[in-house]
Amino acid sequence: MKKNAQAIAATQSQTQAKAAANADLMGIAGAVLLGLTLLFAAGFAQAGILHDTAHDMRHAMSFPCH
Ligand SMILES: [Zn+2]
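That is the input. Now the predicted structure with zinc ion docked in place:
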């Protein structure tokens, strides 16, 4: 009976470890996806579009501009 409880506890511990590893993996995958998206969006966008976007963001944050 005690062995059975230990086995259940070990299984729960492994399940929690797997869930934590999956959460880490999702975070890493999300960061990689976001990074690649930013990299390719900035790499292939035209300079004027990037400038206008940065300019609009500056206004959106109420940063003094012109
Ligand atoms: Zn402006």
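The mean pLDDT is 86.
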